[in-house]
Each structure stands twice: as C-alpha cells, then as structure tokens.
Amino acid sequence: MIRQALTMFFIVTSLYLQGQITGGVIRGSFESTFQYYIDDEKLNINDTTLAGRRTAMNAYANLLYSSNNLEAGIRYEYFAPPLMGYDRRFEGMGVAHRYVRYHDDTWDLTAGNFYEQFGNGMLFRSYHDWALGYDNAMDGFRLRVRPVAGLSFKMISGVQRLYWDKWTRDSDRGILTGMDFELDMNQVFSRFRESKTNVVFGGSFLTRYQRDNHPFYVTPRNTAGFAGRINLNRGAFSLVSEYTYKINDPSSDNGMIYKPGEAIYALGSYSVRGFAFSLGLKRLDNMSFRSDRTAGLNDLMINYLPAINRQHSYSLPAQYPYATQPNGEAGVMASVGYNIKRGSTLGGRYGTQLTAYYSRITDIAREPIDEHTAIGQSGTMGYTSDYLAEGEKYFEDISVELQRRLSRNVRLTLLYAWIHYNIAVVEGKVGEEDVLSNSFVMDLTWRLQNRQAIRFETQHLSTQQDRGSWAMGLVEYTRRSFFATVQNMWNYGNPDEDKQIHYIMVSLGYTKQGTRVMASYGRQREGIICIGGVCRFVPAVSGLSLTVTSTF
User: Fold this and answer.
1) pTM score of the predicted model
2) Gap between the terminal Cα atoms of the chain
3) Which of 416, 253, 421 has its CA nearest to residue 323?
4) Residues paired with residue 238 on neighbouring β-strands, in sequence order
5) For a designed S-S bond to 448, which of 111, 195, 217, 452 qualifies (C-beta 3.0 to 4.6 A apart)?
6) How many Å apart are CA 110 and CA 121, to the nearest integer?
7) Residue-level pLDDT at 5
8) Distance of alpha carbon 535 from alpha carbon 131, whole angstroms
9) How many H-runs (helices) and E-runs (strands) does the chain carry?
10) Pairing relation of β-strands 261-272 and 275-285?
11) By 3-state DSSP, what share of the chain in percent is helix, strand and coil, each rounded to 5?
12) What is the pLDDT of residues 403-447, one digit of tens each?
C-alpha cells in the first residue's frame, strides 16, 4: 500500500516538474466510490454473505501531460476490494493504463494503452465504461494517418486488457491486428463538393491470432473479419449503415461450431422543425468475437454490437433492460417525435412534446445441420438461417412520453411503457416465464427563486411475473450546487411476502467547479444495469456509499 502510494506520488511529481520545465500542461481527473455494507436481515446480508467484505472501494486517477505535439498519460486504479457486483478479478492496485502519443495534422502515433473503434464498432471497438466495470483497452500500437482532408486511415496492433493479468507469449489471449479507412466523397473529390448529398464510405479489416490449444477441436490460428459501411446525409434525412462478416470462429460462446458470422445494422432518420422520425434495423448471426475463444461474461470482447432498443432512464421501466445476444438476434426500432404548437388547444401556452417508441427483438430462425463436416476433429457448421424467418421473441417495448411546461416554472413529464422481456434468455433464468410489464412515470419539476427547485417523481410497474409489481416515489431538492434526494422503491407485489421490501435511499450531493461529492445511505435493489446492450449484475446491498469525482 505504502509502496504503491509512493510510486503514484513520484509519477505525479515527475510529470508536474516536467511540465514546469518544458512549459507543458498537466491535466487530470479522479473518481472514488467507497461503500460500507451493513447487516440487513430482509436482504439476507450478514458476515457470512459478505465474506469479510464490510468495506469496498473503486478508485482511479488519470494524469495527462501534453506539450506541443507530444502527449503522455497514465491511469492508476485501486480496487480494495472492488464494490459488490464488480468482478473480483479487478481486486488490486497499480498503473492500469499508460501511453505516449505524437500527433500533428497528418500523423498520429500512440504506443501503450489506447481505445479505438472501427465504424460502428461491430468489427472492433475498444472502450472503457466505469459504471459497467468494463475495460478492454488495447496495449500495443496505433497509427492514424490523414493525408488529405476527408481521407483517413487507422492501423492497430496489440492485445486486450484482462483485469491485472500480464500478457506473455504463452498467454491464451490472441493478438489483434487491423486497419480501417474512411472516405468523405464531398471533401476529397471536387465534383461532389457542391452536392447536397454528403456520402462517406468506410471499410475495416481485423485479424486475431491465437494459438491452437483446444484439446478436442482443430481451431484456426488466424480469425479474420471484414466490414463495410456507408453514411448518407441530405437535408433532413440521414442514414448510418454497416455490414460485418467474420470467418469461422469456433468458441465457447457458439458451442464450437465453424459457421461464419455476419451482422447488418442500419439506422435512418428524418428530422425537420417540430417533427422527427427514425427507423433502425439490426440482424446478428454468430457474431460473438473475443481475443480468447474460451472466455466468457464480458471478458475480452473484440467487437461491440449496438443496441437497437430504447435505453430507459427511469428506474422501474429500466428494471428489465435488454442485453444484446451476439449468437443471434434480429431487431427493429422506430421512434416518432412531434412538437404540438404553442397556443393550440393540445399544445397549451408553452407547447407540448410527444414521443413514441417501438422496438422488437427476436432470435433468428435456425435449421440445424446434423452431419459433421471435414472442418475440425468433430466440429460442424451448426445450422443454416433464413434471413426473413423469425425465432423466439426476446424483447418488445412500446412506450409513449409526454413533456409539457405547465407554467414558466413547472415542467411535467409523463411516460408509459409496455415491455415484453424474455428473462430466461436475457438473464439466464431458465424455466421462468416471460415478463409482461406495464410502467407509468410522472416527473414534476417546480423551479423556485434563488436557483432552487423541487422535483417529485412517482413510478409504478405492474407485472404478474418475476418479483411482481413495484411502486416508487422520489423527492429531490436542489439549491445551486447542492441537492438532497429521498426515494423509496417498494416491491409490494412480490409473491413471497417476506420479500415485499421497501428500498429506501437518502442521498446528499454537492458540486463545486470540477469536483462533485455525493453520499447515500439505504438499500439498493438487486438487478442488472445495461449500457448500449452490455450489462452487469448489481446485487442487493445495504449501507453507506460515498462518491467523489474531480477534474483539474
């Protein structure tokens, strides 16, 4: 502990002195979340279930030094131990991210850790999400080249982060090498510069090298993927689209089949003043792609498969979020937004915003292949799949939201959401029936004098499945940089009366310039949180939480 602290002090001091000598700039950020867990008979939390973890902390500090075209940075992380719900393999401390970078108008070279994305990420995306406990940072080299305006190239090579494990030549983690290009037709070619239609093409290639170490199957050492994309924009209309293809990649995720994978994604939108419409389509088939074919959970994912359903922000509708199924899914999403004019009967004095959402995601239809192929020792191609056929329903969401100002100082939001949730597939609760839920939300904000406001929020979720119905109420007071919140979530409809629990939470927070401090005390319900289709499990806990974030 002392040695790690001294190391951190030495690094910070060295960077600071270097900045003073060379005229460089030092920037940074810090975040720390501390939790103290207490016994809770209702939640079955005691010394035995906590396994000695009364306290836990997740913390990190970023330091960035820049001078002219040179940049260097480090991130120091501290998990002692990690918060409940985060993977225990994070436990430890040290420099988890370090890099040096040179860049000018044409060249951009990074050595060390970096994050990068090709296109929409369906072939390759390396990123970090602190809330999910997700970090698949690359460790290696990245080169970006921009020879002319509108044309760019990316080249990457390296290995992905796996908690604190160090990569060696004997490691099962594969080596990733790839490249990407993007061409803006309107900037590169003079005859397109006056066109009202903007067209951008892109293409990607990525290969994973992993040694063949499976005891039963012959697995490919090199697994390659390709992607092509086109983005269009003309006036109020825009289209983002991408197609990705991956050659045979037998893995633990797909049951060691040798079928190629493919994915298609398209999102079109039309927007004018007072009206907006969007339509999205997505189809995935055998698109799990990891730098270790035997990995599971959220470990070592090479690609990112964007969600096509609405990400609810209110707690009860968000209780049943959808997790992307990389082995196969087909989905459609549509949204319509309309602003009712001010002064009209329906619009009222200040106008009214109406938004409707729809999304539906199903499994793809599969026709099994019984006979073994010559590929591998006993591997098969697995199945065939008809593009137009539909499989088991995974998720469906119909929601309508109304936002209206009732007066100069009062704003109202109303939300209704109907959700069909296949809990057996999404959460792995085999044998449980699909959840059908109706959620209602009312959110009322009343602005007072001297930059004060009071917000009232009430929610209700009605269902006969899973843990039954819920009710939730919240009151929040804000005054300039200070806020205080009291909320209660009550699982009154749980079929087990002993689990009809009130989850009461009190929170206080203060923000000043780049620093924010928040303390919370109470119960946290069990569930999963998802961001963009990537999820983690959150256990039920009771106790005190203190979070501090700062930038400088």
Assistant:
1) 0.89
2) 25
3) 421
4) 233, 269
5) 452
6) 20
7) 44
8) 10
9) 4, 32
10) antiparallel
11) 10, 55, 35
12) 999 988 999 999 999 999 999 999 989 989 999 999 999 999 999
